[in-house]
Design brief:
Distance between the termini of chain A: 60 Å
Radius of gyration of chain C: 24 Å
Largest interface: A-C, 43 and 49 residues
Number of strands of chain C: 0
Structural class of chain C: mainly alpha
Oligomer: heterotrimer
Structural class of chain A: mainly alpha
CATH superfamily of one domain in chain C: MetI-like
Chains: A mainly alpha, B alpha/beta, C mainly alpha
CATH class of one domain in chain C: Mainly Alpha
Order of helices and strands of chain A: HHHHHHHHHHHHHHH
CATH topology of one domain in chain C: MetI-like fold
Strand content of chain A: under 5%
Strand content of chain C: under 5%
Shape of chain A: flat
Helix content of chain C: over 70%
Largest sheet of chain A: none
Number of helices of chain C: 12
Shape of chain C: flat
CATH architecture of one domain in chain C: Orthogonal Bundle
Order of helices and strands of chain C: HHHHHHHHHHHH
Largest sheet of chain C: none
Chain lengths: 348, 349, 305
């Protein structure tokens, strides 16, 4: 019979039918390595070109805003007499004279404003202020919001109901109105406070800015709280907590490992998307004149000041406008990328 | 030879995902006659639902048919346009899904959803559609039909919702009903009721049924023929008796062994099939079940086994049946790597 | 259902009440009163003015008068715009803002919803990419940027559209575009993700399995479900439109309520500030309540509560 088999042009022989050993089995099975949540997510993020470019842009802008000004030859508040309203890359008469006599004068890359201040450095400082405000405000929102939401979600019942009713009321209060009123109302008390030696910094920062931060602390954390609460609620009831409990893990370990890991993913995404929103609000308010105090620039106030001279000096308007749009866009794209990378449901 | 209701030959289907091509169906062939009940059994991911959906052209994005032919009721499904398909769906072939809660649209009434399919494929007016809808609800065992028609899905229980799904599926008297794990999401007692209902309706209306399930108990009571699927292939095919009493594939044997036995002694261990299904992105060269097989041989890891037939209705693809010591006159050898052997596959019914 | 509506109304009234109280006390935190900056007013004249407006009474009495007046819908007279009552100022200026804002909201819905749906249905194809890019850009550009950019290029350079006032339909174009850019983009994205969610649902598969054409499946089955988040968004959208109008009115010199509000703050026109604040707050609260009620009608699952 063996001869019959071989004559059928098959490539079997008697040996092939020996039982395979476990090693032989395993060598042919390519199991996909199970990666950790974070490594998998970051791998996906790296593949996302748009998000990566946004990240690079953000880093570049950060460098320009925080590091470059330290080396820049001009200051944001120095008014150079005779150098008012210079177009980009031109020199005033005095400066020209200096160059002719052999001195080197750093060019005004973006020209100067109507008070003779170098515009490039003002843009950089403005960007720094806008970013700082955005980041600090987001930090405030993150801390207050997630604590509040976690408490409401975890304890549930009566506590949850009361906390969420409060959230509902706060949610309805119109933010702009409150900011306007608050900054107006706080002006005198804060100014009086600023006279005390420990609080001198209030004058530099500006009453308005403090009001903005206070309002952020009072109002804007509510959507973060709602999100965290719903995460906690969902995870409290979720199947893998039950499974972990069935396997005997103690309550504390359950909370730590499972609840937090999943929650943190969503938290990171929401926070990253909150940053551009905060920056937007700050620039909006600065534009209305309710932001940082003069002479500290913010991208919003720079744009506002530039409107009147729009016809003759359009670059004064476009520089801050483009920059702020770029910042907000990059953060949004990065946030989107993070969400795609870390959301296990791969929502597209 | 009379034409079969369903005739699938060498179907190959893949999902083109961002991670790569998932070869969901790898050369699947079977056929079905009018009025027959076929059970497709397998684990999650074996390809059983994908096969059935492909008959209706319901393959979801990013899936694509990349080989083979699908014939249903004289139509060439693999060549039909979307428009032509939509005339057949709900009309000549219907499907009921696993989870009746999510399969019904929450914002429309039951009546709306039943009458929708009636209006679509028949020329009934509103009065006739209403009458037909009530008739259908009675048929599936829902009382107070007039009241139910005005209700929304969330107002009904799980069992009732599944009955509504069956009513919708049968509204236009299809020739084929595909049931994708219809009772998995229901309580055990309701399960029995729904299955009984399906058999009753089949007898009354004479339609064919494809029953997709992982539960061997269900196929035992309902089906005439069974296809056992694993990793996108039919590894064994036969009548219910043949599969249960004379299984020829190691996987089928494993499945049967793993069914808990009421007569078993206390503390007798359950016998599961060890291991996990393969990665469909990189399917191995040989038999896909080899790594989990207790009787795996060297050749199993190297090559896909050929088809071995046992009589007109029973075949399998397992090397154990090709072992030289087992060869006798009853078995025949076919080399499946030879493409010209399609005629043999066509003869398997 | 009635119970729910009345509960919401009570809740809304409480919220407006809270806002009014906060506003009142904030106003009074500022020392000096409204007449401090007026030039050359003798103390007697100042006292007379204060008496006239009831500002000399103790704070709590002022508060009570204030609340009772509001309940009667009387916001009093403007302190700085002599001879005009706050009600009449609101009555003249608000319709202007409402027209621009209302058109902006309408456009956002009419453009955002269809485009977002189209993007979702054609997911992965060029249409989707194009719409997604435009939408992502649209939410990133602050309203004052788009205002000024439009004004510069279209208004000043190309001289296509007027940049001042609201006298013809042409005047509406740029303000409305500026005001609606963000909500439109937001709705596009919201609709797209909501629609994608819904399209992946089992009941859409059921609809297809019945033989319904793609058009009907989407239009009838998917849209009704996917639009729910957009309805919820209409509340915040109203808030955004109101606050956004402040900027748009300032830049395009439109005689709406926003300008008066900002001006009132600068000139410490107490009554006008409070009247406008409460009016706008009430508007938002009513809009939110309205949205909640509509939502309940559209989604029968929630009907029972």
């Amino acid at each position: 019979m063996n001869k019959n088999l071989q004559s059928l042009e098959n490539n079997w022989n008697q040996d092939d039918f020996i039982p395979a050993t476990n090693e032989e089995k395993e060598s042919l099975v390519i199991m996909r390595e199970s990666v950790g949540f974070w490594r998998d997510g970051f791998r996906r993020l790296r593949k996302n070109k748009v998000a990566m470019i946004s990240l690079i842009v953000i880093i570049l802008i950060m460098i320009i805003s925080f590091i470059v000004p330290a080396f820049y030859p001009y200051s944001y508040k120095t008014q150079l007499r005779g150098s008012e309203n210079l177009k980009p890359m031109t020199y005033s008469e005095d400066e020209q004279a200096s160059i002719d006599s052999g001195e080197s004068v750093f060019p005004h890359i973006l020209g100067t404003d109507k008070l003779g201040r170098d515009y490039a450095i003002r843009i950089m400082m403005g960007s720094r202020i806008s970013l700082l405000v955005g980041l600090i405000a987001t930090a405030i929102i993150l801390v207050i919001g997630s604590t509040y939401g976690a408490i409401a979600g975890y304890f549930g019942g009566r506590i949850d109901m009361i906390l969420m009713r409060i959230v509902d009321v706060i949610y309805t209060v119109p933010d702009i109105l409150l900011i306007v009123l608050l900054s107006f109302a706080l002006k005198s008390p804060l100014n009086n406070l600023a006279k005390l030696p420990a609080f001198m910094w209030i004058q530099t920062v500006g009453v308005n800015l403090i009001s903005i931060f206070i309002v952020f602390a009072l109002l804007y954390w509510v959507s973060m709280a709602r999100m965290v609460r719903s995460q906690v609620l969902m995870l409290k009831e979720s199947e893998y907590v039950t499974a972990a409990r069935a396997l005997g893990a103690s309550s504390a370990r359950i909370i730590k490992k499972h609840l937090l890991t999943n929650c943190i993913g969503t938290l990171i995404v929401t926070t990253t998307l909150q940053i551009p929103s905060s920056i937007f609000t700050e620039s909006f308010l600065s534009f209305l004149g309710l932001g940082v105090a003069v002479p500290l620039p913010s991208l919003g106030s720079l744009a506002s000041e530039a409107i009147n001279g729009m016809n003759t000096y359009p670059y004064l308007l476009f520089a801050p406008s483009i920059l702020i749009s770029l910042i907000i866009l990059s953060f949004n794209l990065l946030g989107d990328g993070l969400r795609d990378a870390f959301d296990p449901k791969l929502k597209n | 030879m009379e034409q079969n209701l369903v005739e699938i030959k060498n179907e190959k289907l893949s999902f083109f995902t961002p991670a790569g091509e998932v070869k969901a169906l790898n050369d699947v062939s079977f056929s079905l006659n009018e009025g027959e009940v076929l059970g497709i059994v397998g684990e999650s991911g074996s390809g059983k639902s994908v096969t059935a959906y492909s008959i209706m052209g319901l393959t979801s994005y990013p899936g694509k048919l990349i080989g083979g032919t699908i014939e249903f009721n004289g139509h060439h499904i693999d060549k039909m346009s979307e428009r032509e398909m939509s005339k057949i769906r709900g009309n000549e072939v219907s499907i009921i899904f696993q989870d009746p809660m999510t399969s019904l649209n929450p914002v429309f009434t039951i009546g709306n959803q039943i009458k929708e399919v009636i209006f679509l494929h028949t020329k009934c007016n509103r009065k006739q559609a209403q009458a037909r809808a009530m008739e259908l609800l009675k048929l599936v065992g829902i009382n107070e039909p007039e009241k139910r028609l005005k209700q929304y899905p969330h107002e009904l229980s799980g069992g009732m919702r599944q009955r509504v799904m069956i009513a919708i599926a049968l509204a236009c008297e299809p020739k084929l009903l595909i049931a994708d794990e219809p009772t998995t999401a229901l309580d055990v007692t309701i399960q029995a009721q729904i299955l009984e209902l399906m058999i009753e309706l089949k007898n009354k209306l004479g339609m064919a049924i494809i029953m997709i399930t992982h539960d061997l108990g269900i196929v035992a009571s309902m089906c005439e023929k069974i296809a056992v699927m694993y990793a996108g292939k039919i590894v064994e095919y036969g009548t219910t008796d043949e599969i249960f009493y004379d299984p020829k594939h190691e996987y089928t044997k494993g499945l049967l062994l793993s069914i808990p036995n009421l007569d078993a002694k206390e503390h007798e261990k359950l016998i599961p099939i060890e291991g996990t299904p393969i990665d469909m992105l990189n399917p191995p060269l040989g038999c896909p079940f080899a790594p989990r097989c207790g009787n795996c041989m060297r050749i199993c890891l190297r090559e896909m086994p050929p088809i071995t037939e046992f009589g007109d209705t029973h075949y399998t693809q397992c090397w154990i049946n090709q072992k030289p010591s087992l060869i006798n006159q009853k078995t025949s050898l076919i080399n499946t790597s030879d493409a010209s052997s399609k005629e043999t596959q066509g003869g398997i019914v | 259902m009635i119970k729910y509506i009345s509960k919401r109304i009570v809740f809304s009234i409480i919220t407006i009440f809270v806002v009014a109280t906060i506003t009142f006390f904030l106003m009074n935190m500022v020392p000096g009163g409204p007449f401090l900056s007026e030039k050359a007013i003798s103390p007697t004249a100042q006292a007379a003015l204060e008496a006239k407006y009831g500002l000399d009474k103790p704070l709590f009495n002022q508060y009570l008068t204030y609340i009772t007046d509001i309940m009667h819908g009387d916001f009093g007279d403007s302190l700085k715009q002599r001879g005009r009552s706050v009600n009449s100022i609101i009555a003249t200026k608000f319709p202007v803002s409402a027209k621009v804002g209302g058109i902006a909201i309408l456009i956002s819905l009419l453009i955002g919803i269809p485009l977002g749906s189209i993007a979702a249905i054609n997911r992965g194809k060029p249409v989707d990419s194009a719409i997604s890019v435009i939408a992502t850009g649209g939410i990133a550009i602050p309203s004052f940027v788009i205002c000024t950019v439009l004004m510069y290029f279209v208004g000043v350079h190309l001289k296509l559209l007027p940049t001042f006032g609201l006298t013809s339909w042409k005047h509406y174009i740029m303000p409305v575009i500026s005001l609606s850019l963000y909500p439109t983009s937001y709705i596009m994205r919201l609709m797209r993700s909501s629609m994608l969610d819904v399209l992946g649902q089992d009941y859409i598969r059921t609809a297809k399995s019945k033989g319904l054409s793609k058009f009907v499946s989407v239009f009838k089955h998917a849209l009704r479900n996917a639009i729910l988040p957009v309805i919820t968004y209409m509340g915040p959208m109203t808030v955004y439109t109101i606050t956004g109008s402040f900027i748009v009115e300032k830049i395009f010199t439109i005689p709406g309520l926003g300008g008066d509000f900002i001006g009132a703050i600068g000139s410490r026109d107490y009554t006008l500030i409070m009247g406008t604040t409460i009016f706008l707050a009430a508007l938002i609260v009513i809009m939110n309540m309205f949205v909640d009620i509509i939502y309940k009608f559209v989604d029968p699952r929630i009907k029972l509560k």
